């Protein structure tokens, strides 16, 4: 779950970059509209008017989409066509926001963390209730200690439960609630696991990059993201707050 004190900051970053993206798109539409008008006038005097009407319709559509998305973020729950807006954010706006953020000196991970927080907020607002067997806890391989000899990517039940890392606690958590649980070494295996298990909800643990990629790749399947802890740096002996994972399970678990 996102800490309450962090959410306003993430909202500000997200909304600020979204507005800048919106302005950039409007400038591009204006430039294309001017170029198109000049060129079309030479072909037919009526074509520029048609082109301007189309540009105006696109402007109104874009304004409506961005306004609805901002209202959705501010309200903390889905507004008009909320699921479609989430898809547009993932597929269209986020890549542009990352580029604009980099130009402004905002770290990529900060932008992605903001997106993950907003994504989680929107999923929580839907009040989803899912049977335990259709919830998948998807973990990164880096939660396992690097010197551990047990191969858990093919079967997480191979974990011996020594307690040196958080894998054993997470396996026990999945057993207690009856959810599915798996470990992926990368995006290709993660997609295969999702295809094989066919969950209705994923609770994913990973870094900002992998969570954002996973949310993008599995849309429209809801993915609730929990950031891992990296005391030794990325992809090496990481950990996660097990209580945070349990809170997510309990929130989505169908009674």
Structural key phrases:
9% strand; Rossmann fold; 255 residues; 4 strands
Any overview of this molecule?
- The protein contains eight helices and four strands, in the order ααααβαβαβαβα.
- It has helices at 7-41, 47-75, 82-103, 108-125, 167-177, 187-197, 208-218, 242-252; strands at 135-140, 180-184, 201-206, 223-227.
- The protein has two domains: 7-125; 132-252, Rossmann fold (3-Layer(aba) Sandwich).
- It is elongated, with a radius of gyration of 22 Å.
- α1 packs across α3.
- β3, α7 and β4 (223-227) form a beta-alpha-beta unit.
- The two termini are 20 Å apart.
- The mean pLDDT is 87.
The largest sheet is:
4 strands, parallel
CATH class of the largest domain: Alpha Beta
How many beta-strand runs? 4
CATH topology of the largest domain: Rossmann fold
Strand content: 5-15%
**CATH-scheme architecture of the largest domain:** 3-Layer(aba) Sandwich
* Helix segment tally: 8
Q: What is the average of the pLDDT values?
A: 87
Strand order of the largest sheet: 2-1-3-4
- Topology order in helix (H) and strand (E) letters: HHHHEHEHEHEH
Fraction of residues in helix: 55-70%
Q: What's the structural domain tally?
A: 2
Which structural class should the secondary elements be placed in? Answer: alpha/beta
Runs in which pLDDT lies below 50 for 5 or more consecutive residues are none
Measured distance between first and last alpha carbons: 20 Å
Question: Rg from C-alpha positions?
Answer: 22 Å
Shape: elongated
């Amino acid at each position: 779950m996102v800490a309450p004190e962090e959410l306003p900051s993430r909202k500000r970053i997200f909304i600020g970059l979204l507005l800048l993206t919106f302005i950039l798109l409007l400038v591009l539409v204006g430039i294309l509209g001017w170029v198109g008008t000049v060129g079309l006038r030479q072909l037919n005097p009526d074509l520029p008017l048609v082109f301007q009407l189309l540009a105006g319709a696109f402007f109104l559509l874009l304004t409506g989409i961005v306004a609805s998305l901002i209202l959705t973020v501010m309200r903390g729950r889905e507004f008009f066509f909320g699921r479609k807006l989430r898809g547009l954010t993932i597929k269209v706006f986020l890549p542009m926001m990352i580029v604009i953020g980099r130009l402004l000196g905002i770290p990529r991970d900060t932008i992605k963390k903001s997106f993950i927080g907003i994504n989680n907020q929107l999923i929580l607002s839907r009040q989803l209730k899912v049977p335990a067997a259709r919830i998948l806890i998807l973990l990164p391989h880096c939660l396992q200690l690097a010197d551990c000899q047990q191969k858990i990517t093919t079967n997480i039940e191979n974990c011996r439960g020594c307690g040196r890392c958080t894998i054993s606690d997470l396996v026990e958590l999945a057993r207690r609630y009856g959810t599915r649980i798996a470990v992926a070494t990368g995006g290709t295996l993660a997609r295969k696991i999702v295809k094989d298990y066919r969950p209705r909800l994923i609770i994913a643990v990973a870094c900002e990059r992998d969570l954002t990629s996973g949310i993008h790749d599995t849309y429209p399947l809801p993915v609730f993201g929990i950031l891992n802890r990296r005391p030794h740096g990325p992809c090496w002996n990481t950990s996660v707050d097990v209580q945070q994972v349990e809170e997510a399970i309990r929130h989505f678990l169908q009674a």
